[in-house]
Design the sequence.
């Protein structure tokens, strides 16, 4: 019984940790970019299939992880977000198992692989994918990347060309999930240099696929992304971005400086282990840097979900270093527990904050659209005004045309009762706000229904608004230049 448990536990533990930290993500509804994908999949069949491979604004394709993923699930489940979330979690659990298998292929024990997967399962890089359906591209890309590397390692071990061709096929298919899989040849080369130098030539042909994908993306990328998507190859800016992600990935809530200190210790330990014939921790460090490569030129767009795939490398590096340090005596054990405790505490705290945010904005969007559907059924001809709309609700739901996608028309923000502020790089919120003169006219005609959005449920405030708003609106009109 104990022997069987010891075989099963390393595989059960990482999914359990993932669900413990990120389980609210199972109940998260759609928000932000999800609505543009939901709009796309509601197009007629012919028009959707024509747009399936159409590049988006930054030249990205992602038909598997975005358009096809949303299309297939929408056909079966419509606006029920739970099945989408289940697919995300199941894929990530498969990723955790693939990481364990990868670590074992690299010569470490199943417990080192399990610990690496547990560290990945708590990381802030997974907070967005675990709570935001549009970020499924990171999870699906990780699946193709890990599977392709396992097949490549199998080829290196056996020399069977079928394994090489299979991993090349997965590598190509993975571009349909996320263009970041372009780093796969570099990771395969890092494996060869650290573990199998006799095979170092074999990853080189794969770089042609990466180069072709980069060329296509740059060719189809449209201007207009603004400063947010500004690309820089200046060495100092690239280094600054790398250091930012290193500090965030290891420091979390503790701050960048703490992350840099932990990173310095990790690199020193990994280098020492490599010189003594244990390259696994250094491979994890290489994984982190290489898989961050596609995001480093985006010096103005530093998102935590860019750490989703690099965090697997951090998990491997930390796990391998910790198990080796544990054998070095009491002082090393105390230092290991202290550093891992800092990494876990700082990371998990940010992960919990992030997953709660994603859950909250999704539930607010869901309650808004379902509540307005009932309001529209009750007031089919009236203009609906929303009071109490803040930046969070506006920019995670209304700004992305949720109401139009849901078929809810003539719904506006009250001109005198919202706190939405225009953001640089975004469309102005004016089209979503009813003109004060039109609001006064609708009040006079008794053709208005007003609902407060400050809670999780809409609240009818029509009578109070009709009494107080005319005076405020006329005063605001008099003050306007």
Sequence:
């Amino acid at each position: 019984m104990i022997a069987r448990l010891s075989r099963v536990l390393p595989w059960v533990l990482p999914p359990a940790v993932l669900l413990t930290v990120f389980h609210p993500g199972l109940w998260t509804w759609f928000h932000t970019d999800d609505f543009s994908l939901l709009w796309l999949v509601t197009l007629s069949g012919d028009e959707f299939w024509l747009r399936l491979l159409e590049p988006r604004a930054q030249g990205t394709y992602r038909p598997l992880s975005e358009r096809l993923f949303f299309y297939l699930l929408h056909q079966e489940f419509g606006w029920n977000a739970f099945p989408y979330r289940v697919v995300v979690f199941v894929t990530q659990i498969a990723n955790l198992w693939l990481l364990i298998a990868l670590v074992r292929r690299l010569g470490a024990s199943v417990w080192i692989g399990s610990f690496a997967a547990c560290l990945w399962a708590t990381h802030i890089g997974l907070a967005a994918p675990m709570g935001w359906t549009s970020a499924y591209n990171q999870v699906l890309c990780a699946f193709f990347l890990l599977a392709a590397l396992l097949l490549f390692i199998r080829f290196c071990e056996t020399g069977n060309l079928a394994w090489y061709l299979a991993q090349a096929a997965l590598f190509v298919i993975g571009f349909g999930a996320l263009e970041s899989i372009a780093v796969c040849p570099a990771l395969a080369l890092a494996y060869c240099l650290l573990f199998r130098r006799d095979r170092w030539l074999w990853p080189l042909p794969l770089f042609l696929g990466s180069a072709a994908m980069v060329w296509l993306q740059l060719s189809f990328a449209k201007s207009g992304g603004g400063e947010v998507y500004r690309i820089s190859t200046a060495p100092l800016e690239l280094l600054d971005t790398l250091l930012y992600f290193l500090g965030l990935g290891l420091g979390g809530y503790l701050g960048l400086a703490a992350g840099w200190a932990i990173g310095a210790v990790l690199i020193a330990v990994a280098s020492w282990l490599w010189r003594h014939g244990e390259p696994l921790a250094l491979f994890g460090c290489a994984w982190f840097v290489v898989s961050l490569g596609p995001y480093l030129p985006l010096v103005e767009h530093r998102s935590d979900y860019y750490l989703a795939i690099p965090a697997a490398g951090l998990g491997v590096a930390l796990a391998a270093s910790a198990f080796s340090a544990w054998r070095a005596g009491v002082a090393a054990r105390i230092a290991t527990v202290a550093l891992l405790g800092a990494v876990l505490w700082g990371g998990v705290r940010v992960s919990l904050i992030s997953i709660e945010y994603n859950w909250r904005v999704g539930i607010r969007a869901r309650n808004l659209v379902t509540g307005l559907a009932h309001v529209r059924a009750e007031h089919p001809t009236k203009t609906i005004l929303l009071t109490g709309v803040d930046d969070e609700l506006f920019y995670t739901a209304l700004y992305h045309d949720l109401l139009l996608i849901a078929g809810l028309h003539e719904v506006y923000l009250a001109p005198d009762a919202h706190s939405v502020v225009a953001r640089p790089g975004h469309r102005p919120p004016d089209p979503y706000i009813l003109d004060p003169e039109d609001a006064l006219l609708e009040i006079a005609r008794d053709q208005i229904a007003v609902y407060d959005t400050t809670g999780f449920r809409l609240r009818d405030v029509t009578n109070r608004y009709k009494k107080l708003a005319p005076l405020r609106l006329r005063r605001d009109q008099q003050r306007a230049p």
User: Anything to note?
Assistant: Residues 156 and 420 are 57 Å apart (CA to CA).
